[in-house]
Amino acid sequence: MSEGKSRFESGEEVVVMKFGGTSLEDADAIRRAVAIVQSRLHSQPVVVVSALARVTDQLLDAGAAAAKGRLGAALDLVRSIYVRHEQLADELVLGARRPLLDRELRREFQALESLLHSVEMSSCFDLRAQDHLLGFGERLSSQLVASALYECGTHAAHVEAGACIVTDARYGQASPLWEATHQRLQDALVPLLGRKQVPVLGGFIAATEDGTPTTLGRGGSDFTAAIVGAALNAARIEIWTDVDGIMTADPKLCSEAQVIRKMSFDEAAELAHFGAKVLHPATLSPARRENIPVHVLNSLRPEGEGTEIGVRARNSAAVTAITVKRQVAAVEIALLRAINSEVLSAVYAAFDEHGCSIDVMGTSLSRLSLIVGSTVALPKIAADLAGIAEVRWQNHKALVCLVGENLRSQPEVASRVFAAVSHLEVRVVCQGASERTISFLVDESKAEESVRRLHEMFFPRQKDPVNDWGGISTAFCQAG
């Protein structure tokens, strides 16, 4: 950790605030985000923003269209994005900042159209081109939000994240080069904070040491917030989204899901790994390393408590949450000889070469059982391993996972889980090496029933107390 990194010595408290796309989807949402930032001005806020809702998908569609020779359709998509940002500027920025914002937006869209022409000419939309293209969404939104803050009297300054977050050249999901990144972030942000300015950065985007654009992967704006927080030794990191916090289950699957008020870094990391959508899986590593609490909050209800993630869990229950990852595949690798380090290295290398991540792995004397999130690369992996193994797989599976800090001290939970779902043709039951997870595989069509049954077991619905309200009948919302 470099000297001068901590701002606690001067009595100042840095708060990193990340706003997701749904928290910035229209003018009202951006006004709410601005008000939330202004409520933190007693500290030293640093703002990280995602692209506006749906913009990243539109950019992907534009790039794919250009690569197929449909440049007109690609440019139409881009112009619709431009019109949306201009309309938001019309509603949010009316003062002296507006001419500067207009110039910035025009410059970005000219560069974006030029890039699409290049994609059309080359007919190539590989991961490197995708990273370059998708970065425009965050740059546009961060310039818009910085201007909206400035319009409301907050001394905000736009900071180009690509000049601060330094990564390797693994396009599509690059990894930060920590020492260079920390130094650049401190050089760029500490002077602004010293002048009581509010830095605003686009999340997700980065660049190699030579300046080639990269990204941290889809959902990587959370990761950017954690990287910034670690570099500044922030007091806390706030992830602002459109839900009340991390919940005991996906409320779309289980209407009785409850908000988890406090949980550990380890529990949250396991949930993110096994499919929970609230946090990017890589987010928690920098925060945990620097012991910076992470708060997940709802920008629609900023007064809510949300979820606090810290070093230790404060939950006595055996199970903290239940999550499900859909569209996974069960892979069986029958080895032609006994497992050893050389064979395992070859298997891992094949999966890594084709960018196929492994969620769960079990081993026996000459067999590996894997759960993977995509089958796209499996034919090529099978071909690569043909000399040492036979690879087979089954699609349309779902991985259901129970997470809890206290699972390690209550081994009987596994037997209760298995009894509850045994009639659903559970294919795999395994307890994670971390001792914080129990996961099993079912047909995708049975995922919802599995979650509901387990949630009812571990989070029984509390009966509302019977009160005499003098004949008045009313509906109550159950507290999380």
Would you mind describing this structure in some detail?
The protein has helices at residues 27-38, 55-67, 71-92, 98-122, 127-151, 178-194, 221-232, 265-273, 284-289, 341-353, 378-384, 412-421, 447-458; strands spanning 14-19, 44-49, 156-159, 198-202, 205-207, 213-215, 236-241, 262-264, 294-298, 307-310, 321-335, 358-363, 367-372, 389-403, 428-431, 437-443. It is α/β, with parallel strands linked by helices and 480 residues long. The strands form three sheets. It has an eight-stranded mixed β-sheet, sandwiched between helices. The protein is globular and about 70 Å long. Mean pLDDT is 88; it is low at 1-11 and 464-480.
How would a crystallographer describe the biggest sheet?
8 strands, mixed
**CATH class bucket of the domain at 46-197 and 207-219:** Alpha Beta
Count of individual helical segments: 13
The sequence of SSEs as H and E is: EHEHHHHEHEEEHEEHHEEEHEEHEHEEH
CATH topology type of the domain at 46-197 and 207-219: Carbamate kinase
What general outline do the C-alpha atoms trace?
globular
The CATH superfamily of the domain at 46-197 and 207-219 appears as Acetylglutamate kinase-like
Could you list the spans in which at least 5 consecutive residues all have pLDDT below 50? 1-11, 464-480
Average pLDDT reading: 88
Compute the separation of the termini in Å: 39 Å
Tell me roughly what share of residues is in helical segments: 25-40%
Q: In the CATH classification, which architecture of the domain at 46-197 and 207-219 applies?
A: 3-Layer(aba) Sandwich
Radius of gyration computed on alpha carbons? 24 Å
Strand order of the largest sheet: 3-4-2-1-7-9-10-8
Q: From the helix content, strand content and strand pairing, which structural class follows?
A: alpha/beta
